[in-house]
Amino acid sequence: MDKPEIDRPTGPAPTDLHSEDLTVGDGAEAVAGGNVTVHYVGVDYETGEQFDSSWDRGESITFPLNGLIQGWQEGIPGMKVGGRRQLVIPPDKAYGTSAALHPLGGKTLVFVIDLLDA
């Protein structure tokens, strides 16, 4: 797979986690609290500006789901290896509602995640 392009969303930001499979995988399934290896791109919902991308660093990343933001903990389980999923994550499931606590605080975030291993 190649790095995904994320179109700037339109309309008001959702207040609940929104998950959409762009490609359904056929490998092992990610489980809550498990380890995952992913490639991902993250953009700000309002501006469409990218704030992070494992693709740009040239390597995937592996981590335990329970160490990630709530939106990833809820949005990745059930995904299968080989799949690509878009998550739209409201501030309360991302980095909180205050920009004073985190630069991405108060922002709705859009991630496209490719699951490489689970």
TrEMBL record:
Segment forming the signal sequence: none
Reaction equation(s) it catalyzes: [protein]-peptidylproline (omega=180) = [protein]-peptidylproline (omega=0)
A Pfam family this chain is assigned to: FKBP_C
GO molecular function annotations of the record: isomerase activity
Enzyme category, top tier: isomerase
Keywords for the protein's UniProt record, in alphabetical order: Isomerase, Rotamase
E.C. designation(s): 5.2.1.8
Domain PPIase FKBP-type, chain residue ranges per copy: 33-118
Keyword Disulfide bond carried by entry: no
Keyword Isomerase: yes
Chain residue ranges for the region called Disordered: 1-21
Name of the featured protein: Peptidyl-prolyl cis-trans isomerase
Organismal lineage: Bacteria, Bacillati, Actinomycetota, Actinomycetes, Mycobacteriales
